[in-house]
Design brief:
Layout: E1 19-24, E2 27-32, H1 37-43, E3 50-51, E4 58-59, E5 72-75, E6 78-81, E7 92-95, E8 116-124, H2 128-139, E9 144-147, H3 168-171, H4 177-189, E10 194-197, E11 201-205, E12 211-215, E13 218-229, E14 233-235, E15 248-250, H5 251-260, E16 268-272, H6 276-287, E17 291-297, H7 306-314, E18 319-321, E19 323-329, E20 336-341, E21 354-357, E22 360-363, E23 367-369, H8 372-379, E24 384-386, H9 396-413, H10 424-431, E25 450-454, H11 464-468, E26 474-475, E27 485-486, H12 495-499, E28 505-509, E29 518-525, E30 537-541, E31 547-557, E32 566-573, E33 582-583, E34 592-593, E35 604-606, E36 611-612, H13 613-621, H14 627-634, H15 647-656
Parallel strand pairs: 1-7, 8-9, 8-13, 9-10, 13-24, 15-22, 16-17, 16-22, 17-18
Antiparallel strand pairs: 1-2, 3-4, 5-6, 5-7, 11-12, 12-13, 14-23, 19-20, 20-21, 21-34, 25-28, 26-27, 28-29, 29-32, 30-31, 30-33, 31-32, 35-36
Helix pairs in contact: 2-4, 2-9, 5-6, 6-7, 9-10
Length: about 700
């Protein structure tokens, strides 16, 4: 079995090389120490974890965040979510389809006493918002308990190898997300009044004001005086023919495999969705040596920051707006994806179908707040607040600042006299800004030996370039949402090129060739050296990825103070110096035309129970308007995830059938909101005969 782990990466440090033995369906495999089951299987080239008992459909990963259940396996006789449980030495992992005998719990059947822990503040979720709130509260000496279902704090920050936007002074802008996560965890770990329960899941909010927590210590109750819920978000899913094939999964799941666990989980990748998650996922894939065949976006322009879009276009990744994926095809797993252009009503345009041979399709069509506990806590009248994506979907920088503000608000509610600066609320709203309509870019002509070209043409909350310039030559009049402006005599230090999170700045060296026939550019570069070696001739591109000409790499500057970003010196014709913004590392491909009629298909909607579109549409047409009744009739939402991945898809079908959403009763939220082993509720007796 091949090892698909990433041995070298331009940004990530190598993981431990220590290996442990385990088996999957009797086959001997190895995992990295601390690696979760799903990542160890993918590293061994195994993407099919089993087959569903209903229709023998192949089962793989989707969210890798504990929010779905289709990657359930049996580990040492115990059903577990493979993305949440680390491999232990000698572990026996089996597919659920074989129905292996489950382990028995040797314990008293009597109702045990459940520990009940009282705490001033319970923080549910250890991502950026939760940890920042804990830092604010802990510095005031307030007793806090953070409960998180992962193995370490930081949430999705640990998956982000890129530099963050935002404010340098207020939310760590310019730092890489994974470094921000490490810093925040270290800060909260130094606070004596903050306790942390990892590998622990809050599974219910109850009418007596308590929360149930399942974790390594068994089931416990927590009675907080106040609660902050920062559970983050889950990835939205799509329903199209082939959406349930192994190899179709969320972009966040992909980042977990590639950036956290360093597994090269794909060879040829296609992305659905042009928001920041999809665009950043494409960039991360390229850094990991994975080919990104293309990206489609249904809207007229990508919803993510234009600098993210431009940087992958420059590298050779084609982006098709006003396009969609019609279907994914393959025998047991993804083999090809079929796309088409769409009209103003989002309907496919006949004759525009194209086929691409790929092994992975990432779904990056937005996020939904993980707010079930928040809804129930408010229903029961508990003192509760929310921050981060649980409160409102936004960028991680906004979640960081949201945690700071909400932490201080909670402290005030608890009677602590803590200031909240008057401009914090407005600044927090600014960090949520999705970006203005881009403006046209025109390169300035400046008669100095060297100067920067700032290809930032969209108002987004970002100021690292201002802070980086040692001579204060870059400014943003008004606020950090303004476009950067340059004025003065640049010394060519390259600090702005290093600092820009969007890789949107390069230097022009006018003094390189007195004749003007050649010009020298300094460009940012975040790939392994062999991708563009010294002396290589490359295809140069403009800021939006259009081919300009060719250039030659004459030097690469690598220093510790460049935060793992290289400065590549590129010689180009003098006539190209204002046009060239980057270079290709792959050649764009437009796919193959599709011949013949599309096969009839009935796409999957509910992954857990394998409920297809036709079954749900039939029930809707029969008059079902209560999703609880729908659950009883067709079993949608009955599976292990509790409807987390299919509820929005079902609501879309109601709208397609002409049913006003206000006429539909939403599914009831009941404990337990996550799967819990019954053995977690049982405690062994200390007395013989009990």
């Amino acid at each position: 079995m091949s090892d698909r782990r990433i041995d070298s990466h331009p940004i990530l440090p190598p993981l431990t090389s220590e290996r442990i033995d385990f088996t999957f369906n009797g086959e001997a495999l190895q995992a990295r120490k601390g690696e979760v089951i799903s990542s160890a299987l993918y590293a061994a080239g195994i993407s099919i974890f089993g087959h569903h008992h209903k229709d023998h459909g192949p089962q793989g990963i989707y969210c890798v965040n504990g929010q779905c259940s289709q990657y359930t396996v049996v580990a040492d006789g115990r059903p577990v979510k493979s993305c949440m449980v680390p491999v232990s030495p000698g572990m026996s992992v089996q597919s659920c389809e074989d129905h292996p005998a489950l382990s028995e719990v040797e314990a008293s059947a009597s109702s045990p006493d459940v520990p009940d822990i009282e705490v001033q503040v319970l923080i549910i979720g250890g991502g950026p918002a939760g940890v920042c709130a804990a830092n604010e509260l802990g510095r005031l000496g307030i007793e806090c308990l953070i409960v998180d279902d992962k193995q370490e704090l930081g949430g999705k920050l640990g998956l982000q190898t890129h530099n963050f936007f935002g404010s340098v002074a207020d939310c760590y802008a310019g730092m890489r997300g994974m470094d921000i996560g490490t810093r925040l965890a270290e800060e909260v770990g130094a606070l004596p009044t903050v306790d942390v329960w990892l590998d622990s899941t809050v599974v219910g909010a109850f009418c007596d004001g308590k929360f149930g927590v399942a974790g390594p210590q068994g089931y416990r109750l927590v009675s907080p005086h106040a609660t902050l819920i920062t559970c983050g978000a889950r990835e939205k899913s799509l329903s199209f023919p082939g959406c349930d094939l192994p190899g179709v999964y969320g972009a966040g799941a992909f980042q977990t495999l590639v950036n956290r666990d360093q597994v090269r989980c794909a060879e040829k990748l296609f992305i659905i969705g042009g928001g920041n998650v999809g665009l950043i996922g494409a960039y991360h894939a390229l850094q990991a040596g994975i080919d990104v065949v293309g990206l489609v976006e249904a809207l007229p322009r990508c919803g993510g920051y234009k600098v993210h879009e431009d940087k992958i276009k420059r590298l050779g990744v084609p982006i098709w707006t006003r396009h969609t994926v019609l279907r994914v095809e393959g025998d047991e797993k993804v083999e090809r994806v079929i796309t088409a252009a769409i009209d103003d009503k989002f309907q496919p345009i006949a004759g525009t179908e194209r086929a691409f041979e790929v092994d992975t399709v990432l779904v990056a069509v937005g996020l939904s707040p993980v707010d079930e506990l928040l809804v129930k806590a408010r229903e029961y009248g508990m003192k509760v607040m929310a921050a981060g994506d649980t409160n409102e979907i936004a960028e991680a920088s906004a979640a960081i600042f949201s945690g700071k503000i909400t932490g201080r608000k909670l402290a005030r509610d608890l009677g602590f006299d803590v200031p909240i600066p008057s401009d914090w609320e407005s600044f927090g709203e600014m960090l949520k800004h999705h970006g203005s309509e881009p403006v046209a870019y025109e390169a300035p002509v400046i008669d100095t030996p060297v100067y920067p070209l700032l290809r930032c043409v969209q108002e987004i909350p970002c100021n690292p370039c201002i802070e980086a310039c040692p001579h204060d030559l870059i400014s943003m009049p008004g606020s950090i949402l303004a476009l950067p402006d340059f004025a003065g005599l640049c010394e060519g230090c390259g600090q702005c090129v290093i600092a820009c999170p969007g890789l949107a700045i390069n230097l022009v060296h006018n003094d390189y060739d007195p004749t003007g026939e050649k010009a020298l550019l300094t460009l940012p570069f975040e790939f392994e050296d062999e991708v563009i070696p010294f002396g290589a001739e490359v295809v140069t591109t403009d800021m939006e990825g259009n081919e300009v000409g060719t250039g030659t790499v004459i030097a690469v500057r690598k220093r510790e103070d460049q935060d793992r970003r290289k400065l590549l010196m590129l010689e180009v014709p003098g006539t190209d110096k204002f046009l060239v913004a980057g270079f290709r590392i792959r050649e764009p491909w437009q796919g193959e035309p599709v011949e013949g009629e599309a096969p009839d298909a009935d796409p999957m909607v509910c992954r857990c129970e394998r409920v297809r579109k036709s079954e749900i549409v039939t029930a809707i047409r029969d008059g079902v308007r209560d999703m609880n009744q729908l659950k009883a009739v067709v079993r949608s939402g009955m599976g292990g995830c509790g409807g987390k991945t299919c509820t929005e898809l079902v609501m879309r079908l109601y709208r397609e059938e002409g049913v006003d959403p206000s006429e539909v009763t939403q599914p009831s939220i009941r404990p337990l909101v996550a799967e819990v082993h019954l053995g977690d509720f049982v405690r062994t007796s200390d007395k013989e005969g009990d």
